[in-house]
Write a structure and sequence with these properties.
It is a single chain. It is built from 14 helices and ten strands. A five-stranded mixed sheet has the order 2-1-3-10-4, with helices on both faces. A three-stranded antiparallel sheet has the order 8-5-9. A two-stranded parallel sheet has the order 6-7. Helix 11 crosses helix 12. The relative contact order is 0.18.
Length: 334
Amino acid sequence: MPRRWGWVALVVMIALIGAACGQRQAAVEKAKVRVQLKWVTQAQFAGYYAAKEKGYYDQESLEVTIVPGGPDIVPEQVVAGGGAEFGLDWLPSLLASRDQGVPLVNIAQIFQYSGMRELSNKDSGIKTPADWKGKKIAVWFGGNEFALLATLEKYKQDKDVTLVKQPFDMNLLLKKEVDAAAAMTYNEYKQVLDGGWKAEDIVVIDFNQEGTAMLEDGIFVKEDFLKDAKNKDIAARFLRATMKGWEFCKDKPGECVDIVVKQSPTLPKAHQEWMMAEINKLIWGPPVPKTTIGKMDADSFKRTAEIALKFGVIKKAADEKAYTTEIYEMATKK
């Protein structure tokens, strides 16, 4: 008889623990939040779509609306104006907004490496940036040119090249009207291959290796959003689910591409598959990053901020208040 009652007590205790856990889960109010992307729906943002599709946001009691970007959308303006709680953009854009008095702060750095490159055909004679002297070098302006400018200065070539404003395609390079052109590893590099060039004929200048790369996709919020402890918790839950989404894309890139294509078949699936593979490299490596996904690397921030100041993106030096690792630490409980 005592043994039977022991089992009954155990069952009751398990039921009570389960009920308590359910009450704690219910106590976490489901929050509605929006995240403003930098560009249109594509594999560059697969981790967010995966987190939503696989229920990771739901598991964190979040109802997340993912808002695609476009050529006329500035994520910093959207977040500052209250159109979204979270924004996604390159760090120099965030620093420029802060420099103009817009109180935004980076809470998570997703890309640990820059995807921007400068491409040439090997028949141009270019092997390193030192060979750019006297050449026509194309780049996108409007905020995308600063890694190139920093590299030109490094090699003391800033007055010895002809800079050409690059359209958002690779035709100038493909037609050999310029000697080098900018490309993202996850997009325009594939366009060059699709244009008939072979990988062995392409010379790639990697700004990460040159030490002149600037940080790209990071998540930011308004500073005053974090003054409320409830919002800090929401941000940590959002980041935790988002990182889980990106981990899923690392392990199952094909499924992530299917999720993205289902959302918007803007780009061909083969192009999205290429993009997914390259985006994973920017997050996870190789080489293995100094910090993990979501955590800002202080040295990378400093390099980006110094380049931004040197080339007039910002007028005064950026301070470390432009980012915080507190939300990352809350999300990972480290």
